[in-house]
């Protein structure tokens, strides 16, 4: 079998409301690039990558010459074709490679009539648990609804998500408001949901000293882990020395060299594996094996997925024995998906691992065209800007915090 074509289509998927984070915001929509790899046997595999727009489509077009005639079963050869470590000093193709790897695994599964998890060694669980993933939100620009700014709005949003999807783990994305305000929000969540587990992630926006003070203030709560409270391996190491909560990251350990450095001089207890950031499903499974050897925790990170990438997260989570925490997903913030049948369903806070051939999901061509047209109509948005504060830009560490007393504006 040979690859005969590579296509990339950028889509825009509306969110319930704009999601705020320490670096800016998702402006009421996700921009994703859908990849199709076609073979001479008529099989089409699907992949997905975050953002990019026209630049991502051009980047994938630039890789077409590398892939035409390539056997999609030859994944290690493809990895070196695209991500040779020396050549990668001059280009960073890790996320591009991930999307193509997803598509090739999809093709392999369809060719053999087996799900991707079977290609990866077989699943050890049928469902993947997920956390609620709570954001501070701006109002929806059309309806004015959906704002999450006050403590009561946050608790109402968490109650609604728990009632609708069954979540028993709640992650608060912080780094937006002053640390003392977000500490009050986090404590309020713990008081309102005493039987549920919690995790806090300010995206590295706190100074080391602020991170230590915040972490020590929540040590007695039902914490899963303390995710990227400050930036950098050494800063996280200092926090870990002073706070009795497991540290976690999806920013400072995202490749094998960083993982090795963390094993030699520990700063991170829980590695959040992302099928895009690590360059594919298979690198995540390899990294999970290293974590198992050195008794590091493993969880699944979310980088703003539609259903194709969500399927990769489910297959990866299904085959990793040492997956010790609920996964993250932005998925419940979406208003729709590009899959046949619509969005995958949560059941008691979990999503079932697909058992169909390949990734086990199919793209609805009409939805793909609909949301591609929506992207062409509206274009992208700057991830590192906040539409409610046009003159603001992010600092790391933070300090230019939003004012929780000021109502947000779309």
From TrEMBL:
Keywords: Metal-binding. Residues 151-246 form the Mandelate racemase/muconate lactonizing enzyme C-terminal domain. Pathway: Carbohydrate acid metabolism; D-glucarate degradation; 2,5-dioxopentanoate from D-glucarate: step 1/2. It is an enzyme of class 4 (lyase). It catalyses: D-glucarate = 5-dehydro-4-deoxy-D-glucarate + H2O. Its EC number is 4.2.1.40. Transmembrane segments: none annotated. It comes from the Bacteria. GO terms for molecular function: glucarate dehydratase activity; metal ion binding. This is glucarate dehydratase. It comes from Paenibacillus sabuli.
């Amino acid at each position: 079998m040979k690859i005969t074509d590579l296509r990339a289509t950028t889509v825009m998927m509306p969110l319930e409301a704009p999601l705020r984070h320490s670096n800016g915001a998702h402006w009421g929509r996700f921009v994703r690039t859908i990849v199709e790899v076609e073979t001479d046997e008529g099989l089409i595999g699907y992949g997905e990558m975050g953002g990019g727009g026209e630049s991502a489509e051009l980047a994938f077009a630039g890789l077409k010459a590398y892939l035409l005639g390539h056997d999609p079963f030859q994944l290690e050869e493809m990895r070196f074709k695209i991500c040779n470590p020396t050549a990668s000093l001059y280009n960073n193709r890790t996320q591009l490679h991930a999307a193509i790897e997803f598509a090739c695994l999809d093709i392999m599964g369809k060719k053999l009539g087996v799900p991707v998890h079977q290609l990866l060694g077989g699943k050890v669980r049928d469902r993947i648990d997920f956390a609620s993933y709570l954001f501070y939100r701006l109002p929806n620009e059309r309806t004015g609804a959906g704002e999450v700014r006050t403590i009561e709005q946050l608790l109402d949003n968490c109650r609604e998500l728990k009632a609708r999807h069954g979540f028993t783990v709640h992650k608060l994305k912080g780094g937006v408001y002053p640390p003392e305000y977000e500490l009050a929000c986090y404590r309020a969540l713990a008081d309102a949901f005493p039987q549920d587990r919690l995790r806090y992630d300010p995206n590295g926006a706190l100074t080391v000293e602020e991170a230590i003070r915040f972490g020590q203030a929540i040590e007695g709560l039902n914490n899963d882990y303390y995710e990227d409270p400050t930036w950098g391996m050494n800063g996280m190491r200092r926090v870990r020395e002073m706070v009795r909560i497991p540290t976690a990251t999806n920013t400072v350990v995202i490749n094998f060299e960083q993982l090795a450095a963390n094993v030699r001089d520990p700063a991170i207890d829980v590695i959040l594996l992302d099928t895009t950031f690590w360059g594919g499903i298979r690198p995540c499974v390899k990294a999970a094996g290293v974590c198992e050897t050195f008794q590091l925790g493993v969880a699944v990170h979310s980088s703003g997925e539609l259903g194709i990438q969500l399927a990769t997260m489910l297959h990866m989570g299904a085959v990793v024995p040492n997956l010790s925490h609920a996964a993250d997903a932005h998925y419940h913030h979406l208003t729709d998906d590009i899959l046949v049948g619509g969005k995958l369903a949560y059941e008691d806070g979990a999503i079932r691992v697909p058992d169909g051939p390949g990734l086990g999901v199919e793209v609805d061509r009409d939805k793909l065209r609909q949301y591609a047209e929506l992207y062409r109509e509206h274009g992208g948005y700057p991830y590192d800007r906040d539409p409610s504060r046009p003159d603001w830009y992010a600092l790391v560490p933070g300090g230019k915090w939003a004012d929780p007393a000021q109502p947000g504006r779309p």
